[in-house]
Every structure is written in C-alpha cells, then in structure tokens.
Design brief:
By secondary structure, the chain is α/β, with parallel strands linked by helices. It has a single domain, classed as Rossmann fold (3-Layer(aba) Sandwich). The chain is 43% helix and 14% strand. It contains eleven helices and nine strands. It has a seven-stranded mixed beta sheet with strand order 1-3-2-4-5-8-9, with helices on both faces. Strands 6-7 form a two-stranded antiparallel ribbon. Helix 2 crosses helix 10. The longest helix has 18 residues. The protein is globular.
Length: 298
C-alpha cells in the first residue's frame, strides 16, 4: 500500500539521520559488551526492550572492576536500523540469544550470575526459572506482566498495521531523568505491532514463572518509575518463589535505572549482592574505582 510504504520510508529516514551506523549495520555504541577477567566468575547482563547494551555499560564496567567477566549481548532487532528491528525483534530470538550467552559463559566460568533490566529482567526470570544453579540474580525495574491499557494499544497497533508499520513509542522521554544519559541513549523510540506483541509474550511468561524462581534475587525499582507502578513491582516481588530475596527502592530516577542518576547506587548494590552470593571478596582490580562509562558521563 502506498501510504504504508511512504510512512515506513519516513520513519527509517529519520532514524538513519539520528544515529551513526557501523559497517555491520549496528548503531555505533550499541555493540555487544564483553569484558574479561581471570577470576572464573562472570556476569550476564541483559538490556531492555528498544534499548541497547549501552544502557548497561556503567554497571558492566563496575562489575568488571570488581573482578567479574561481563557479557552484555545485543538482543536481536535492537541497536540496528528500523527495517532490521521490524524483521528481527521477536520473543523467540531474544530468549535464544540469552540462552546462548548464558551457555557461553558457563562453558568458561565456574560461576555465572545474571542481571536484567526492564524486559531484560523478564528474560532473566525466564532463565533463572530453568537454571536453579545460578547463584544470584538482580532484577532492575523488571517488566513483568503488562497493564491492560498497554495491551489495548497493541490491539490498536495491529488495527493500524496495514496502514503503517511503525508507531512512535510513548513515555520514553521520562525513562531517564539525567539529561546527559538521555542524550547518549540509543533507543529508537519507535515500535511496531509485532515487536510490542513480542514484549507482551516475554512479560506475561515471566509473570507466570515467578514462583519457580528460587534463586536469591535482588529487586531494584525507582518509586518514580514511569513504566512500572510501585504496586505492580511489590506484587511481582512477592510472587518470587525463593526466600532469600531483597527488594530495594530508589528515588530520583526513572525506568532505566542502570543509566540514570541512581546508576552508582544500582551498581553498588548489584556488586555487593553478587559478591555475597558468589562468596567473592569485594576487591577492586582496577586502579580507579570509577568505571570508564561513569567518567564519560561526567
């Protein structure tokens, strides 16, 4: 259809003007993060929906400076041009990427912990439910379940799908309070009916599997989160199956807490949680205790 094609071209052109793209088609700065250490312990970090590993860079650097190997895979359909997003951003592909990354780390490390943010938190729940050997999990504002009004938006997106592939996402400008972090963010702010449906699939599956997660779990959430209410987060935390869990509340930041004003507090709590449950001394292996991404962010 003519109008659908024109709408798609406009969105893709505007996206290409906003972001630099490397030769492999990945946005500059959105690449998979892999940081190595010789401790035998590794952390798998999982970014959120419509985001990239860049949002987890501060936490990755902090964990690395405390002796952890760190892997932050770029989920399929993320950190790429919109046409690739529309084609590749699917729930099965995300779950497969996380499972492959975890298996890769397990092959080379004695201990592997897992941390996920937003939809990445839901993916971490799915992984932990089937891998009880994981010693500890950290959930950063996990997107577990989906409000009815968002599900109604998905229905509307499907109704409009024949007339336009892309839709401008809502509320993303409030997910980061820090203007510097907001300026560096690489999320497109664009969704499609299939990608939102994939998000729904992951979020609802994670909600159903919460009782099966008996891994010690740290649950961090901002009281000013624009995506997830305090009531929803409290209910999700209470549904976790284990008994060795901790829910901590943050203030002064939005939904993407690993990159926002509260990122230092988030990183500190995650480092301590993982060290405690992996029986790893809290020793810094670098000359500076400030991660490189923190220095870049000012």
């Amino acid at each position: 259809m003519f109008f659908r094609a024109r709408q798609g071209e406009r969105f893709e052109r505007e996206h290409a003007q906003r972001f630099a793209v490397a030769a492999d088609g990945v946005l500059v700065g959105a690449e998979t993060i892999k940081l190595l250490q010789s401790s035998g312990r590794a952390a798998l970090l999982i970014h959120g929906f419509n985001d990239t590993p860049q949002s987890m860079a501060y936490l990755a650097d902090m964990l690395h400076s405390h002796g952890w190997s760190v892997l932050v895979p770029r989920l399929p359909g993320h950190g790429v041009g919109l046409s690739h997003m529309a084609r590749d951003a699917r729930a099965a592909a995300w779950r497969a990427e996380v499972s492959t990354a975890y298996a890769e780390l397990r092959e080379k490390h004695d201990t592997v912990v897992v941390c996920g943010q937003s939809m990445g938190g839901a993916l971490a729940v799915l992984l932990a439910a089937s891998h009880p050997e994981i010693p500890a999990v950290a959930l950063l504002a996990p997107y577990i379940g989906m409000p009815l009004w968002i599900q109604l938006q998905i229905v509307l997106a499907w109704l409009m799908h024949p007339f336009g592939l892309y839709r401008t996402g809502r509320g993303g400008e409030r997910s980061l309070h820090d203007p510097d972090a907001k300026a560096k963010a690489l999320g497109p702010g664009v969704v499609t009916a299939p990608t939102m449906t994939a998000l729904r699939s992951i979020a609802l599956a994670a909600r159903n599997l919460l009782p099966l997660v008996r891994v010690p779990t740290l649950y961090l959430q901002s009281r000013e989160d624009n995506r997830i209410s305090v009531e929803t987060a409290t209910r999700a935390f209470g549904a976790l199956g284990g008994t060795n869990n901790s829910q901590q509340w943050l203030t002064g930041c939005g939904h993407i807490i690993s990159a926002d004003y509260c990122r230092a507090d988030v990183a500190s709590q995650v480092v301590r949680w993982f060290a405690r449950h992996a029986e790893m001394p809290l020793t810094n292996t670098s000359a500076s205790t400030t991660p490189a991404s923190a220095r870049d962010a000012g």
